[in-house]
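> run fold LacI family transcriptional regulator
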Amino acid sequence: MKVSIFDVAKKSGLSVVTVSRVLNGAETVREKNRQKVLEAIKELDYRPNAAARSLARGKTGIVGLIVTTLQDSFFDAVVKELNEVLALHGYFLAVSVSTGIGSDEAHYLIQEDRVDGLILLSPMEEDNYIVELKRRNIPYVLIDNQKPENDAFSVTVDNFKGGYAATKHLLDLGHTSIAHLSGHNMFRSTKERRSGFLKALEEQGLAPFELLTGEFEIAFGYDTCRRWLREGRLPSAVFAGDDNIALGVANALMEAGIHVPDSVAIVGYDDQDISSKLHPYLTTVRQPADRIGLAAADMLLKRMDGTMKRGASVRLDPELIVRESTVTPAEETSG
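> ok
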């Protein structure tokens, strides 16, 4: 039997009017009551009638999401959270995999006024998007944007802290010869992670074993480590710009019969699903995908209902997850 707004009101012990206000994002509802309504909605698996609400609001009931790839478990987790939160508010999430504003997918969402709001996840060409979205008066939120000057209406992670924490962990274990393999410099996250890495080394009066940039791919880590082996030199530890690069390094070392972490310790970044499924389990820096999605959805909902008119940004802290690639299982902790 289909769950109605009256069922939600009964379950929460509040009036239909209060439930309706929560669904429409009204600021006049007490936070305690808003939480009661949201809990009742989740328990009953209530789905608002998006079509009826769209007519009442004079809007489409659709939020667009533009992302460059979905072959990434971190991005997948962010999209999952966005979808769940927006659905609770009666919005359908339309996902477009696009490399730029000139693509057919982006054109369909933006140029033809198909959406009430738009979220850009790790965008390239963000300036072009912002100009067009402002011109069309479409509320937007950026996640993991590349330029600090576009931080109004953004949700980002403090990647400097992540890079620093990863390197400090290796230093605390006694490593002094540490390499850093990063992504391309076009990414803000790359530059911030590298800055954190260099700051931690600088505090100890150390220089990097090697600093390299490349693709966020297993092949980059694998090929680089194979070169070190051919040259007869290895760092005692590697901080990789993402988990794929880290796994490439681990593969090359294991092929050569070199044990991780006894001979070389490895730290990745992102805490992709695969990092806790292949031995050695990978020490990595986790980005809080659920909190990123929740913060971005909340910000966009407020922009769409007009309660957030001035620019605001949310900056979240990452978390170091310690596993087998830096310490033996008996020593494992997380922090």
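The chain is about 45% helix and 15% strand.
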